[in-house]
Automatic annotation (TrEMBL):
Subcellular localization(s) per the UniProt record: Cell membrane
Residue span(s) of domain Histidine kinase: 240-456
Protein name: histidine kinase
Predominant localisation class: membrane
Keywords: ATP-binding, Cell membrane, Kinase, Membrane, Nucleotide-binding, Phosphoprotein, Transferase, Transmembrane, Transmembrane helix, Two-component regulatory system
Pfam families listed in its UniProt record: HAMP, HATPase_c, HisKA
GO cellular component entries: plasma membrane
Positions of transmembrane segments: 160-183
InterPro entries xrefs: HAMP_dom, HATPase_C_sf, HATPase_dom, His_kinase_dom, HisK_dim/P_dom, HisK_dim/P_sf, HssS/ArlS-like, Sig_transdc_His_kin-like_C
Membrane topology: Multi-pass membrane protein
SMART domains: HAMP, HATPase_c, HisKA
Catalytic function, reaction form: ATP + protein L-histidine = ADP + protein N-phospho-L-histidine
Keyword Cell membrane: yes
Length: 457
């Protein structure tokens, strides 16, 4: 038994170690390549934004301002005429001359990548054509230094080495407890690790008992779940936060430079300062929401419950928020009988309802109505926020409480949202021991239902 146990243990060790090595290598490669791809997309988008401005104002001042804005960012820009003669640049032309000589497709209206070899070159780069009246008049070249990629790889190597060492120690420990009876469950675990190494984290292992083998099965299950969660969360968070923070910061830096370095009329100065103020408020709101979510995640968010008379509370809500609805030509109606009481944090409950009402205003039109109804059922208090707005597509409903998720992505900046409001609502409701549900139909409206443990008289 001991000999077989050692053989099975050694075989399991070799297989698991090999699979983990392949898995880590694939994950490592995927993380790096996906990050490079995200940067290229962001670089192309930034170049297209500059292109849009230059197509309207292709003059020396605009070219200088674009180059000046990029000189303050971590990217660089080179603007050329149709013959690829440099008109403006935020980087030494000797470093990027070779990129300018590369062929550019005349049909690539949305631009193209001309340099993605981050392993051997100093820059990744894209180009966007500038056209007026259907004629090519120039190009916008965008550049991103590849030094950050090497730094990312170095950090990943350290983390993966530590994870590999932990995996090896854990596997060796398992060998000590192997026996002939472990053969069948070990085969199942081997199949599960093969599934993980191929990138499929939908692993399901049966409960084998409260022993080391059972713990191993559970650990593999948790590893698959965590890897799946971390892969999705890392990609989503890096993409979302880089975009959401970079955009307002770019506006603030760019327009602040213009205000500081140009002689502007009072009207232009006020216009630019208004843009800076709007972006600053938006950035401040986003940072505050992120701090709130971080506190909730760390269980350091204070919930100070008091006994609330919901009729009085809802009257104050109606008085406070009705003007905002009236200004938009909408109507707010509140219904609550006087015998309902709730143990909750009044300021946090108001924050919950405010975020939901704010959404109702943003996604409703002139003449639409929003109703807040309060009722009880089996010692529970039920608060419903019902609007007759344009509704939420059914396929979007499972994701609306995700952080940075927006249903109407094309209007996100116009509407002014950060994509964090409903995430905060969900966390605050759960912090009160409640639940939140949503029903919606496009063109008919949306219903948010909050259920709390309550007190009735």
């Amino acid at each position: 038994m001991k000999k077989l146990s050692m053989k099975l243990g050694l075989l399991f060790f070799l297989i698991l170690f090999g699979l983990e090595t392949i898995m880590f290598f694939l994950l490592h490669s995927t993380l790096v390549e996906s990050r490079v791809e995200e940067e290229l997309i962001a670089l192309q988008t930034r170049g297209n934004s500059h292109r849009a401005i230059l197509e309207k104002h292709f003059d020396e001042n605009t070219i200088s301002h674009v180059a000046l804005m990029e000189s303050e960012a971590n990217t660089d820009v080179v603007i050329t005429d149709s013959n690829k003669e440099i008109l403006g640049s935020s980087v030494n032309s000797s470093y990027i001359q070779a990129y300018l000589e590369r062929p550019v497709s005349s049909s690539a209206r949305e631009g193209q990548t001309i340099g993605d070899n981050w392993k051997e070159e100093d820059y990744i780069s894209t180009v966007s054509p500038i056209e007026q009246n259907g004629q090519l008049i120039g190009h916008v070249y965008m550049f991103q230094d590849t030094a950050w990629i090497q730094s990312l790889i170095s950090r990943l190597n350290e983390q993966f080495l530590l994870a590999g060492l932990i995996a090896v120690i854990f596997t060796i420990t398992i060998i000590i407890f192997l026996s002939r009876a472990l053969a069948r469950p070990l085969i199942k675990m081997k199949e599960a690790t093969s599934q993980i190494s191929s990138g499929d984290f939908s692993v399901s292992l049966p409960k084998t008992g409260d022993d080391e083998l059972g713990d191993l099965a559970q650990s593999i299950q948790l590893l698959a779940n965590d890897l799946n969660y971390l892969r999705e969360e890392r990609n989503d968070f890096l993409s979302s936060i880089s975009h959401e923070l970079r955009t307002p910061l770019t506006y603030i830096k760019g327009y602040a430079d213009i205000v500081q370095k140009r002689d502007l009329s009072a009207e232009d100065r006020n216009q630019y300062l208004s843009i800076i103020l709007e972006e600053t408020i938006r950035l401040s709101e986003m940072v505050k929401n992120l701090f709130d979510l971080a506190k909730i995640d760390k269980n350091t968010f204070d919930i100070k419950k008091t006994h609330i008379d919901l009729q009085d509370f809802m009257k104050k809500i109606e008085t406070k928020f009705s003007p905002a609805f009236t200004e938009k030509g909408m109507k707010l109606s509140v219904g609550c009988r006087e015998t309902i009481r709730l143990s909750a944090d009044a300021s946090r409950l108001e924050q919950i309802i405010y975020n939901l009402l704010d959404n109702a205003i943003k996604y409703s039109s002139f003449g639409d109505k929003t109703t807040i109804s309060v009722s009880t059922s089996k010692k529970h208090v039920i608060i419903r926020i019902i609007d007759s707005g344009r509704g939420i597509p059914e396929k979007e409903l499972p994701f609306i409480f995700n952080r940075f998720y927006r249903v109407d992505k094309s209007r996100a900046r116009t509407l002014g949202g950060t994509g964090l409001g409903l995430a905060i609502v969900k966390e605050l409701v759960h912090a009160h021991g409640g639940t939140i549900s949503v029903w919606s139909r496009e063109g008919e409206g949306t219903v948010f239902e909050l259920v709390f443990k309550g007190e009735t008289e």
